[in-house]
Write a structure and sequence with these properties.
The protein is mainly alpha-helical. The chain has one domain (32-233). Helices cover 47% and strands 11% of the residues. It has helices at 43-47, 50-65, 111-136, 142-147, 152-158, 163-171, 184-188, 192-207, 215-233; strands at 32-35, 73-76, 79-84, 87-90, 93-95, 101-104. The strands form two sheets. A three-stranded antiparallel sheet has the order 1-3-4, with no helix packed on it. A three-stranded mixed sheet has the order 2-6-5. Helix 2 (50-65) packs across helix 3 (111-136), helix 3 crosses helix 8 (192-207) and helix 3 (111-136) crosses helix 9.
Length: 234
């Protein structure tokens, strides 16, 4: 996930407002440093730990429960950090354009937090696929027609659904509000729309379908997932 200003949460609770998923950046703007394993424990040694193997099994089970190809989801023994606004942050997970997802092993990460992290990353994968299809079609295509109502001003007026997503709105440096399915990171230095939708997914996983959440963002999240399912099956 693409983290901003928040350091890694130490609490193990599943609270929506309390849990910030820290995500590293994709693309040319990504400024990460892959930290070496602790001197007394190599990556291979970590991979052989019983706790690591148990977490790996849990992650695979969660992926299958989400209906996702578990072979595309891996638990990495590495630690990945990145710098932003002069601060260093630790990433909990990362999604890739090819649909692969890495979650970075943390011995303190509960299964609940692991699930929240995966829910957030999976939503990025869905968003990327729909965005690619949207950008590939003509301006009067079906995706353009369906998502036309989600104008930049309408989304900006809602802001985010969590502290983490609001950090992205606060950090936006574009001359105008971000546009749905645009390349936000390159245009404004943050990803308010993409990250807000991913936080909706995390909230739904965390609290269930009855969670109270901004209805416009919930509607947009659901529309993206419907189109993802149609594209994935096609």
């Amino acid at each position: 996930m693409r983290s901003r200003l928040e350091a890694r949460l130490q609490s193990e609770g599943r609270g929506f407002g309390a849990l910030s998923i820290l995500r590293c950046w994709l693309g040319a703007a990504l400024r990460t440093a892959l930290a070496a394993a602790a001197p007394d424990q190599t990556a291979r040694e970590i991979e052989n730990l019983s706790h690591f193997l148990k977490k790996q099994e849990t992650l695979q089970r969660l992926a299958r429960a989400f209906g996702y190809d578990a072979s595309k989801v891996t638990l990495s023994p590495q630690t990945k950090t990145f710098d932003y606004l002069g601060q260093s942050f630790t990433s909990e997970g990362q999604s890739f354009a090819n649909g692969c997802i890495e979650i970075y092993y943390d011995p303190q990460m509960s299964d609940a937090r692991l699930g929240c992290c995966l829910a957030h990353e999976l939503q990025h994968v869905r968003y990327f696929l729909v965005r690619d299809a949207y950008c590939a079609e003509p301006a009067d295509g079906p995706l353009h027609r369906r998502f036309a109502k989600y104008a930049p001003e309408a989304l900006a007026a809602q802001r985010g659904v969590s502290n983490y997503s609001n950090e992205h709105w606060d950090a936006w440096k574009g001359g105008a509000p971000p546009t749905l399915f645009s390349f936000e990171l390159e245009e404004g230095g943050s990803e308010p729309i993409n990250e807000t939708i991913a936080e909706v997914a995390k909230a739904l996983y965390n609290w269930g379908p009855d969670v109270r959440i901004n209805p416009l963002w919930r509607e947009l999240h659901d529309a993206i997932n419907e189109e993802y399912t149609a594209l994935h099956r096609g």
